[in-house]
């Protein structure tokens, strides 16, 4: 690993049949950095998050996390190593409480999550404690025992963030965290995401709202047709002619 990188992707290639979904993608994220991944619809942003978290295996290239080659590690293993994530579409259980949802997410259905939820197994109490702390961290400690069905969109997004944090994440990947969130709740979520980034925890987010991107991003990475078109300081990237052309006809 190069000095200062938490995550390093080198020459990632991912194809589905003849379609090149990601081509030669290389990037680094430093500890504590907030990187926004932007690009037109279909550019490959969600796929890139899947590659980083291990739900998709690239045909070639490597993924190094905290100095360790995790290219062949599965998603649960990577999550245990501190790579947390949220998904573009909501995946919470409406009829369960916030605490139950987060406890389930902590172990994952293949690990101790269900046992923890049912209160069996030696680590059930530990799991619930961790889930409670994670909910406190996103400001929902007081609602831990309410059902998820009673929450606003913004609160649901916060529960999803709590799940991504619960196994002790050193990096969180957020796929369109503002989707479905009403305008008046956006500043609160922006503040939460800022708070997630600490000297040791990095954040990578996919976001379409440019005002949000510009408030949060230390650095922008622009994907276009599965390739990194530009990266760097937000001001420089936004003024890049190629980026402006790529976005023609789309809201930037
Ligand atoms: N499972 C799949 N099968 C076929 N094509 C896919 C699959 N997943 C993604 N793609 C294609 O890969 C490209 C990138 O998709 P995606 O990563 O979802 O883009 P983004 O998140 O930037 O909108 C799109 O052209 C999409 O149609
Ligand atoms: Mg997407």
Automatic annotation (TrEMBL):
Keywords (A to Z) from UniProt: ATP-binding, Nucleotide-binding, Transport
InterPro entries on file: AAA+_ATPase, ABC_AA/LPS_Transport, ABC_transporter-like_ATP-bd, BCA_ABC_TP_C, P-loop_NTPase
SMART domains on file: AAA (SM00382)
GO MF term (any one): ATP hydrolysis activity
Sequence intervals crossing the membrane: none
Cellular component GO terms held in the UniProt record: plasma membrane
CDD domains: ABC_Mj1267_LivG_branched (cd03219)
Domain ABC transporter: 7-250
Cross-referenced Pfam families: ABC_tran, BCA_ABC_TP_C
The protein's name in its UniProt record: ABC transporter ATP-binding protein
Organism: Streptomyces brasiliensis
